[in-house]
């Protein structure tokens, strides 16, 4: 499509292959839009319900995703039609607001439009049809309010929440062990929920997945899991009553801001430089030891010299921890993120009852568990499973959001 001007300076549009294009107006345009929406709904219709079939989606890069979640399917579909894109937005908004029913809302919209097409054939104006659907929705909501039953729950009686969560998982790939996964999701939400204010901060729930093991190995950790290990293999793998220093400053000598060059032509100069570096490292480690830290978690890396010195001084360390994970660790342990070594004081250290490194099977995969934290309101759902047809690694995030958000409202109505 291009913009051109005639001899009077008036713009007009030139469309490629214009002779093959045609503008549709009136009832034909409305039917064409309805047809596009029905096509999208027809794709998702077979995925609805407990016996719904899964869809295998292949991306342009060749990655394969297996899912029956409507939002996931529509997100990965290449939809060009504008009405089809509206259906994708409908599913996305349903997922954002409720967290469940993404397939049902698209299928329902397609069915309503299918019935609207019959009304259009009878000569009823589209505005009148829309008004009728609006009146019908009010009557339906009122009827649902009349027949609804309210289930009370508490921190000691979570069975109503578990039953609700199992309902949302019945149509998912994970339905074969939905009872355990539902209990994990409910306990995770209740751990971070404020029952008095009826508020839930789902950002405090971290979802971590690791390929391997069985789906039944999925567990809820009352703390934080970091996909890292100790920076030195000889550092202790288990630390009890840990005092954690959370640092965003690296274990390395300060670098000049301008361009610089160092000429080393004698052994004495090299030894002097090495001694100066060791002095910097030694001072940094001593500041951590003086503050009482028994574990250092650093956002940046450090070289072998610093790593060796940390091991010799008996100070375990973890490097290259992401910023989001640092914030969660600080929330869970009650510590403060420290930007400079000179600002590290005992009151800024985090507390954890147990920090342990765990390895998985015969692989070299290792992860760091930070448990028994002073503030247990930050939890981690650790998902195991095969990659591909035996999920939850491909559907882990969808599963967690479906479970978490489906029963967040504290007036449980079925």
Automatic annotation (TrEMBL):
UniProt xrefs under InterPro entries: Chap_CCT_epsi (IPR012718), Chaperone_TCP-1 (IPR017998), Chaperonin_TCP-1_CS (IPR002194), Cpn60/GroEL/TCP-1 (IPR002423), GroEL-like_apical_dom_sf (IPR027409), GROEL-like_equatorial_sf (IPR027413), TCP-1-like_intermed_sf (IPR027410), TCP-1_chaperonin (IPR053374)
Subcellular localization? Cytoplasm
One molecular function GO term is: ATP-dependent protein folding chaperone
Q: Which UniProt keywords apply?
A: ATP-binding, Chaperone, Cytoplasm, Nucleotide-binding
A GO cellular component annotation here is: chaperonin-containing T-complex
Q: Which SUPFAM superfamilies match?
A: GroEL apical domain-like, GroEL equatorial domain-like, GroEL-intermediate domain like
Q: Which PROSITE patterns match?
A: TCP1_1, TCP1_2, TCP1_3
The source's domain of life comes to Eukaryota
The UniProt similarity line reads: Belongs to the TCP-1 chaperonin family.
NCBIfam families membership = chap_CCT_epsi (TIGR02343), thermosome_beta (NF041083)
Function, as annotated:
Molecular chaperone; assists the folding of proteins upon ATP hydrolysis. Known to play a role, in vitro, in the folding of actin and tubulin.
Q: What is this protein called?
A: T-complex protein 1 subunit epsilon
